[in-house]
Amino acid sequence: MEAPIFILGCHKSGTSLVRNLLDGSPELFVIPIETHFFEFSGFGVSYALRRAVPKRLKFEQFVEKIVQIIQKSKQKNEITGTRGGDSLDAGYWNVQVFIKYLHNKGKEFFELGDLQSLFNVYVEGLYIALYGDSLPDLRFVEKSVEHAEFAGFLKSLYPEAKFIHVVRNPYAVLVSNRKFLMKGKEKYPYLGPVLESMENNYYYLYQNPRYIPDYLVLKYEDVITETADKMREVATFLDIDFSEYLLEPTVLGKEWGGNSMSGKDFQGISNYPLTSWQKDVNSLEIELVNKTFLHVLSDYQYARMEQKFSSFKFLSNEKPSVYILNRLLRKQFEMKRSK
After folding, report:
1. How many of the other CB atoms lie within 10 Å of CB of 156?
2. pLDDT tens, position by position, 143-167
3. 1 touches 162 (CB < 8 A)
4. Which CATH number fits domain 5-273: 2.40.30, 1.10.490, 1.10.3470, 3.40.50?
5. Is the C-alpha dihedral spanning 115, 25, 207, 196 positive or negative?
C-alpha cells in the first residue's frame, strides 16, 4: 500500500468513469465505493454536498458509518429501479467479516490516531469482505469526492501516492447535480450546496497541483472522446501497464452500467453525456456558471454559453421560496467575486 491512487473531482464530474476504467488493471485493487475516510474519522468537511463538522467519534460510530455505505451500495433506487455509480450486486459484501476484521485490526489504530494504519486496515477489510481473502500485493485506488480538500494530508500519509483530479464542463456538472437532487421529487431544488461544492472542488483543482507532486488533471470530455490516448497517459502517470482492459469500465471485473443523469442505460463508454445536458440547462444555471466559474471555462477551453432568456423567469416546478433563494445566489456569488 505504499503508492495508492486517489481519484478526485466533484459530484457528476466523471470520477466514477475513471475509477472504473482502472478496474481492469491486474495491478490494482479498485475500491468500488467511496470510503469517506476523513468524514467517518471525525474530520470537518467543507465540501457542501458532504459537509460535516469536526466530531470526536467512538470507534463503533466509525464502523457504523462504513457499514451504512456498504449496505447502501447493495440497494437499488426504489423510484427508478436502477443503481448508482457505487452500487453492487447484493451478494458481494460479507459485512460481518468486515466488521470483525475492523474491530480486530483497526480499533487500536483508531484510538491512537494512527490514520495511515487505520486507512490500510479499512482498505484491507473491504477487500476481505469482497473476496474472502487477504489483500495481495496490490496498490489500491480510492475515490471520494470530498477528498480533494484532504489531498495534502493524504500525501503526508502516503508519500508515494498519486492523484488524478477529473474536471468536467461546469454547465454539465451543475445540470447533472440539479437533476440528481430532483430525482424522485420533481421539485426544482435550491442550487446553493451544488455551487458551493463546485467552488470548493475548483479551488483545490487550482491549489493542489501547485504544491502536491504526482498530481494529474484529467478532462472528462477527453476521456470520453480520446479514451485510448488518455488511458495510456494515465497508465504512464501511474506506472502501470497499459492494456485493452483499461478501455472498458468495469466494477469488480463486471461490466459497468454507467452513472448518468440522462436517464439512458448504456454499457462501456457513451458519448451521450457530452451534449445531453445542453437541452436541459436553463438561463439561471448559465448565469450562475458565468458569474462563478469563468476561470474554469477559460482555462479548460469550455465554450461560454449565453443566456437566451431572463434568469428571473420562474423555472418549472420551482417553489416561490426556492425561487427567491436561487435568485439571491446570483448576488451572493457576484459579491464573492468582487472582493
Report:
1. 13
2. 999 999 999 999 999 999 999 999 9
3. no
4. 3.40.50
5. negative
